[in-house]
Amino acid sequence: MIYVRDDDVLLPSRQWPDPLARFKEVHEMLADFDFVIHIPTLLTSELDRYPEAIDYIRRETNDGWMIPEFHGTSHIDYADLTPEEILQDYKKGQDWFKAHLGVEFTRHYTPWGAGEDERGAHIKPTAVAAGVVVVTCAALLEPEHIIADPYATYEKYESREIFIHWWAGIGKLERALTKIKP
């Protein structure tokens, strides 16, 4: 499998007046590739405004096409929070995930890669205490990297995560996935 990490799901964008339609468009394109799993990193406060999105994500998760993970209860810099505040946010996020999606998150994809540097050095140990793995922006694999790789194959990128934002263009992502299609 190849995983596509999709950050800031449904965060408002001037470029896309209907964020839910755009999110679905991205997901449906990914579903055309049977070797891809979509990992939307969710901001729970944004999803509360889109009940239809919650149903859609729950259904696609149950069908095995998505693995929703935590981006935050809101789009904040977790390096600014104390360990206690992070744990409270994880609890609030887990409660939301269980109530709305019927699953628990196992990873925290931090906004702006918090936890990568000394400012956020407290984030990873706090997450470990909560049973959560922090994923930062270190070593991101973007569609452009695959497109530019003359030796790109499925085997080379198997089990890797490709990073996108749902609101960005998907042409490059589609080209990258087509290039490595087994």
Overall description:
By secondary structure, the chain is an alpha/beta fold. The chain has a single domain, classed as Glycoside hydrolase/deacetylase (TIM Barrel, Alpha-Beta Barrel), CATH 3.20.20. Helices cover 41% and strands 17% of the residues. The protein is built from 8 helices and 6 strands. It has a 4-stranded parallel beta sheet with strand order 3-2-1-6. The protein has a two-stranded parallel sheet with strand order 4-5. The longest helix is centred in the middle third of the chain and has 19 residues, at 83-101. It is globular.
Q: Any descriptors?
A:
182 residues, alpha/beta, TIM Barrel, four-stranded parallel sheet, two-stranded parallel ribbon, 8 helices, 41% helix, globular
Can you give the helix content as a percent range? 40-55%
Annotated CATH homologous superfamily: Glycoside hydrolase/deacetylase
Q: Which strands sit side by side, in order, in the main sheet? A: 3-2-1-6
Structural category: alpha/beta
Radius of gyration: 16 Å
Distinct helical segment count: 8
Helix and strand string, N-terminal first?
A: EHEHHEHEHEHHEH
- The CATH architecture category equals Alpha-Beta Barrel
Strand content: 15-25%
> Which regions contain 5 or more consecutive residues with pLDDT less than 50?
none
Principal-axes geometry comes out as globular
User: Quick one: how many beta strands?
Assistant: 6
Overall pLDDT metric: 94
Total tally of structural domains: 1
Q: Briefly, what CATH class?
A: Alpha Beta
Largest sheet: 4 strands, parallel
Under CATH, the topology can be stated as: TIM Barrel
Note the gap between the termini: 10 Å
